[in-house]
Structure formats: C-alpha cells, structure tokens
Specification:
Layout (H helix, E strand, L loop, with lengths): L1 E5 L1 E3 L3 E5 L2 E10 L4 E6 L4 E9 L4 E3 L16 E4 L4 E6 L4 E9 L9 H8 L4 E4 L2 H12 L8 H14 L17 H13 L4 E3 H7 L4 H12 L8 E3 L6 E6 L2 E6 L5 E2 L21 E2 L17
Antiparallel strand pairs: 1-5, 2-4, 3-4, 4-10, 5-9, 6-8, 6-10, 7-9, 8-11, 12-13, 13-16, 14-15, 15-17
Helix pairs in contact: 2-3, 5-6
Length: about 300
C-alpha cells in the first residue's frame, strides 16, 4: 500500500472490513517540512482527512507534481481509481488522521452489478467537495466497532457506497503553473513600484502577467512557497523601493524587507514569521525591458 515516504512517520494502520468496503486508518506524524507518503492500491479508494493539526493536508498524484483539484478547504475528498497513485502531502504539519476506504465491489451487498461496474469505471479525482459523501466518510471514520453484529457500522458502510453513485464525475485537469521570470515578472514588479502608495490586489497583478488570478496564485506559490489563494493583497509601503542590481548574467530584481507586506489579519506564507526579505534569484529582468514610461494601470485604457 505505502510505496514511499519522506519526512512522515505512519503508525501501524488499523483496518476494519464490511461487505464491499475496508476502512484503513492512518495516523501520521510529520518529522520534516514538507513531508509526504505515496500509496497505490489494487482497487478503487476514497480518501478523507478526519483531523489535522498544524497545517492542512493535500492530495496529489505524485509528490513533485503541483496540487490538483477544485476544493482546498476542510472536508476535501479524493477518489483514486484502480492502480492509480495517491500522495498525501503537507507542509507545517504536526499530525493527521486519514481514512482510506478501499472498495471491494465484487463483495458489496448494497450495489447492483451495474452500479458496481459504474463505480469501477470512475476516473481519479483529487481534492473535490461532496457534502453528502464527506459526511458518510467522516461518520464511518470516527466509528469505533463495539458491538457484534456492528449494525451501525454496516449501515454507514452501505450509505457510503451508495453515496459514491452521486459523486461528481467531472474530471479535474492537472493544474499547471507558469514561471514568473523575465519580462513577465518585471512587469509585475514595475507596476507595484509605480503604485507604492496604494494597495495592489492579486487580480491586478494577474492581469498584468496575462494570467488568471488562480494561475498567478499557483505560479507565485511555486516560486516563493507563499500560498496566497487569491485572497491576499500586496501592500507596498511608501518608503519601499525595488533595487535592481546588475550581474554578469543580467539584471536581478531584489527587494527590501517590506517589498511585499501582507494584508493585516492574513496568515503569513508557509515557513515564514515575517515578510520575505528578498525576491528569488530566478526572477530576473532582461536588460532594457519594461520601460516605466509605457506602463499603465491594468484597468486603464490606452
């Protein structure tokens, strides 16, 4: 089941079976940041995070791939098709309790053969929301078997299998990001430099870089590790300046401690207790690009 792990200690999994369904509970403790485990299964699996401390788990196909999905809040679900990979990944995490529901569709006592075949054909879907399915998965994950026969657990197991039939079937395409380098990033920095006395919204910077707000958020996170989730704004203090220092390879953009400051009340980026002190070296500005004399606000027509 677990094919590889990095920076995570997994206690001995507990396993409970009902007709058509096996529940596997993983108690995980993070030793490093980030940390992850990779798993594969010989049958379809539904994954749900029952509890987490210190951060938030993500699920993805591979550890090195960007996060996929369309819902990142509490209660996200992941359905993994037969023989497909699953990685549970987190930063700034202390511990988490994960429930994996491994389906045995040949032994189900509540699905017809047509319904079982339909579920078997489902494609993998990472990090989505389905309130009814989540509630069934949560209740069964928290259930402690104390009676024999386990009528309550059996009822929940059947309800979970039936709830899978209503699972959204839309396949989520892998989320890709565009590197914020060269002229693209120089335009973003130049716009902020020209509006030091204003609060710049993420949507404005996304428009300048010719990206959607979601794409800009992912690209910024890939470059800095800061997860803005499209809800941050960048505030530039009046006395803040972007310093452009020349090097043999070109001009490198750096910034003062306060170049990017986070809106009051917003959480700091992962791993930081203060604003970033400088911009990554990979963000470079080619010589001669982006003259400030031709730059305008993204909302202003020229």
């Amino acid at each position: 089941m677990i094919t590889k792990e990095f920076g995570v200690h997994v206690a001995a999994p507990s396993r409970q079976k009902w007709p058509g369904l096996a529940r596997i509970i993983l108690n995980m403790r993070w030793d490093t940041e980030p940390g992850w485990i990779a798993l594969t299964f010989d049958s379809p699996v539904l994954c749900v995070v029952l509890s987490e401390t210190g951060g938030r788990c993500q699920t993805r196909r591979q550890p090195e791939q960007p996060v996929q999905g369309d819902y990142f809040g509490t209660g996200h679900l992941t359905f993994v098709a037969l023989s497909q990979p699953l990685t549970i990944y987190a930063t700034e995490m202390r511990d988490a309790r994960i429930a994996l529901y491994q389906l045995d569709l040949d032994r189900t006592d509540c699905l017809s053969s047509e319904q079982a075949a339909m579920i078997a054909r489902f494609e993998s879907r990472y990090m989505f929301r389905d309130d009814r399915l989540y509630e069934c998965a949560r209740l069964l994950g928290e259930h402690e078997v104390s009676n024999d026969p386990d009528i309550y657990g059996l009822s929940l197991a059947r309800a979970l299998q039936l709830a899978l039939l209503g699972m959204p079937l839309r396949r989520v395409k892998p989320r890709t990001s565009v590197r914020l380098t060269g002229e693209r990033f120089a335009e973003v920095v130049a716009y902020i430099s020209d509006h030091l006395d204003q609060t710049t919204a993420v949507k404005d910077l996304a428009l300048i870089s010719n990206l959607s707000p979601a794409q800009f958020g992912r690209s910024f996170q890939d470059a800095t590790g800061a997860d803005i989730r499209n809800s941050y704004t960048f505030t530039s203090a009046a006395n803040t300046k972007a310093a452009i220092t020349s090097s043999a390879a070109g001009s490198t953009l750096t910034g003062s401690t306060a170049f990017f400051t986070w809106t009051a009340g917003a959480p700091m980026p992962p791993g930081r207790s203060s604003a970033p002190r400088s911009l990554p070296r990979t963000w470079t500005r080619p010589s001669g690009c982006c003259s400030t004399s031709t730059r305008t606000s993204p909302n202003r027509r020229t």
